[in-house]
Queue: 4 jobs
Job 1
Amino acid sequence: MGMIWSMGDALLQKKFTTDTIPFRKKKNRGEKPQYYVENSNPPIISREVFQAAQQLQESRITTTKREHNSILSGILRCPDCGSTFRRQLLRGTVYWMCSDKAAGATNCQSRRVRENAVYDTFCLMVDKLASHRQNLLGTLIHQLEAMQNRGGESQEKIRQIDKQIADLSAQNLVIARLHINGVLNATDFAAQSSVISNKINALRLDRKKALSEDEDDELIFTLKSLDDTLAGYVPGSPFSQALFEEIVQSITVVDNSRLTFHLIGGLAFTEQIPENVRCRTA
């Protein structure tokens, strides 16, 4: 109900004292009747100003709730500072801009994008991606699968490397024991141990390279899922929130005329914002 006393009104019996021992003062949550008294004290502000302030406060709360519920919350990002964009309502149009820039916390380049511009630009990007998905996704998936087919060779190579590392580690252990028992002096021990350690490090690098050739399973699955989704997409379709949430991970607002969509599968596409929905100035 706000600070009603500021406009001269009062709400009586907001608290009450219990009837039983020990007597305690409690906040009245409906246990006792409350009484609203108008003009009980001299007002600080007029009733009209108070009501206008209440409406403004409620509208801000509503705007905050809408921002938190928007599919763009946490998605739009500033390329300068990396901060997410915040929602603004200006003369009936919804805009998004860098939250840190809006708060005056950074010196980022001024960027502002209309909410409907994001949706329109997304549709343009998806239209192109769906129309050329065979050349883009199909080719990429084929190349990754071709690399994956060499996985058998990679596994055998990894097994051989592991065996060599184990043999060298055993040799290192032997010379360490010889040194401890006084059979091998410190100079010879250091020299031989250094040679073995260098060989082991080189083999570990080879093993890491071989392993990286077998890490494409999840990526291929994700790209195939994206390809299947786009296979059923009809170019020219209106904006789909479900599709947006399924394939978009983040969006970089490059400037007032370009957006870069970061999609599942590590893909990124930059699309021009239609001129009729661009923000000329931030």
Job 2
Amino acid sequence: MSEADESDFEQDESNLVDKQQGSGQTDENNLVDAGLLELKQDPGLQTLEAEYDSLASGLPLHAAHSLSAQDTGCTKGPVPVEDRRAAGKTDELYGEMGWWAMAGIFHAIAANGGLPSEFGDFVDVGSGSGTAIAAAGLLVQHFMNDDEGQQRFRRLRGVECCVSLHAASSAVAEAWASQGHLPQMELELGDAADMCLTGAVLVLAHSTAFSDELILTIAERAEKAIPPGGWVVTLTRPLPRAAARGWDIVEARRRTVSWGAATCFLHRRRHDSAPPPCTYHLAQECYSSQVWFHCKSCGLDGDVGICAPCAAVCHGDCEGVEFAAHSPFFCDCKVAGGRCCSRVVGGAC
């Protein structure tokens, strides 16, 4: 149950024992760019931003947007314009992460264990102009430091299906190389569904307008390829059945990108492949900030919902399981009469 509007939900006390009243705190899911002001005070990030702007000037956003709007074909033939529009009924056909959204993502990854100790690749699925790859190459050196110095990605790879946009993105790759940055950017023309993720430790999927089939393909490939401690970042929606596939959704925060605010989901690969238990047993009916979901098939919507493990396991075969929020919450799978997997202390629900 969500903390924000709990008083609006009425339930028999036999099901909801000692349910606490909402504290009136701001719903975390309404926040955009949380912590950004502090990041912008970092002189190192300010210096790198100027370097990023120089690289991105090789293919400015407006030029990339124009190329995308004109290019109605891809490597697999013409794509209907309506199928390429971003979700949320926006008219944008193309968008970019931008420097500070990428900085926020890398800051969150560093705060939650960082990257695996062995070097691996950064892979951008739907790389567009290539500017997100340039940002990743700069930011990894700022945030991922160890006793042996700054960490770098082994390879910087991207795939883009729009022919003209891919061709123009070479300007960013050439600027990256001319300024002496390593490793070189590898920009591939092809379909995102065919992108090899072997060797990747961080995958960015610009998934706002991806089809269900494509996001499922990425989830299946990442499950096989990404090592423990590796990451997948998606936009607008998480990987399907993430917890059951071995992922912890560490964060689901709204960040400002070129088309507005988009929810960025940070999935970290678990060392233990078994899904974690229902979060209800951790704090019972006390609120804990976490990612949670609705299950419309089971009538769990509005302020009532399920934690990520229950969404993947108990409700894995349900239709209508959708991301709800990242906010103070406790799981209602047990108390609302769901078929909870929870493996709580004392047995199943």
Job 3
Amino acid sequence: MDAIFWNDSHREAFTAVPAKVRRKESSSDGVKPAEKMKKQASNAGEDRAMLLGFTMMGLSVLMFFLLGITILKPFMLSVWNEESNCTIIQADIMEDWVDCSFTCGVDCHGQSKYPCLQVLVNVSNSGQSAVLHYNEEAVQVNPKCFYIPRCQRDKNDLLDGVMNIKEYFDRKNDTPFLCFHRPESKPEDVIFIKKYDRSVVFHCLFWPSLMLLGGALIVGMVKLTQHLSLLCKVYCSASKEELGSVASRPDSQQSKTKKEDKCLRWRLNSQSMSNAPFN
């Protein structure tokens, strides 16, 4: 009976120790679910940040393309580049009104007339008189009038708007102001403002550039974070290998085996003492 109980207890002790060792190995080698979820969340956040950065960069390039065609190209090809000072000579409303057409709905069209305001100025650079226009488009549409008002059915509203502009120029009778002209091709015409000046071009280029810089900064920060995390993993793995090499030395293994032998002997003695009354 003693031999049977001793053999049974001996087998139980030898089978119990590897089970605990296996549980420790599985718990130490396996990755915790919380760490897996954290890693997946970080990867999803990095992917979204990268997508946001590349989207911002793509939209900025598209804005550069559209604004370059619609604004930057006319600004670069503009021929009204020479600045001068102009002084009002006279501002009169011509007797002959100009025909125009208006729309008041989907199937509603009509004909009307608008008053033509003619403004004569003296150009300081050339010393000659010229006709003042609002911008480049006014020169092409009607070279005799200052600007082209929006065509309306009510002629009184059109006349009131033109009279307000005439009073403005009458108050600036002797005050010089900035104007733009083309002395080589059209010395008889000057414009009051340019449709696309430097401030408009600056704002059109500033916001796409800011968006492009922001997208590149987001992508760069994500790449830097990934690089730092990779360096951290390499450092942690190297430190674990160093600890493993220290733990695998002979003296540490001997001390570990001695502890396991003592634990096994204590278990065997305790089990044999508990089974002693059955002898």
Job 4
Amino acid sequence: ALRKASSAGRGLNRVHIFISKTVIKPETCVPCGKRVRFSKPALKCKECRAVCHPECRDKLPLPCIPSCPSTPGTNKLSEGIISDFAPSERPMIPRLVVNCANEIENRGLSEVGIYRVPGSDKEQKELKEKFLKGRHPHLSNIHDIHVVCGCLKDFLRGLKEPLVTFHLWPSFVDAADIGDRNKCREELQHLVQSLPQANMDTLAFLVQHLQMIAETPACKMPAGNLAKVFGPTIVGYSCPDPAPMQIMTETRRQNQVMERLLEIPRDFWADLLCVDDMSLFPGGTPYTPDFHSAPRSMLGPINTPDMTEYANEMTRTATTPKYSTKTFHSKKPSRFFSSPVVN
């Protein structure tokens, strides 16, 4: 049976598609963190490019998030939008977002004030840099779960455009102002489906994640608190460089939009992430290649003569003449391999 990720209910059941390789340059096994030495066999996922020992294949974290086609650069994150960091296939959600959210759900649901308690800025930046360089950091090795939370928030904060695009921002604000909650919900659902694909997929994933936190009493983070934390990064402002007075007036509006989005039932968000199973299992069910199999010649095996007899023949020498250093070797065999037999 295939292992399911913690986000299995959100259309993220993609598994790894392994190919075998012989290591030339030493690499690190993602699950165990140990080095894969020179000339040793290894497995590499053709989608996310994670490398592991053959015996560690079942420990490679799920879901598999395919590598994005291109990343603007680790030092110029503000120049990228969400689609620059997302896979080219659905669900189009960056690996950083999926892995951080899953780790927080695994370890952080007992933390009071999750997403409000700050973590180490240095560790957050180092973690984000590893993700943006295409690496697979071990989130389970990060002792402070607030560092993982800060990494996710910092990534969203650094985007050139929030998930709610500047073009649709006024429409989202107007929809959130509708007094009738049913009409408000219908209008917001329509606007969400009008977002670009990567924006919509990432928003649907994050809203379900935040709804889980809001429904966990131990976290003490209701929807209103989460809206204040994520309103500036998910909803944002109406333009890239708002004026000071504009920031004051739009902050309340963005929090209102975020809170209304969190009130939309989870089924709506889950349906947005439902994708065809063929995109989650490209090429069929994955398997581990057999390292011991090797192609056979159509001509049959090649017979090699006895090397001991050949070595003795080569080292057998004649008597060395007086006043001479020349050694007379026996004649070298004219044929090393016997001809294969063709039936």
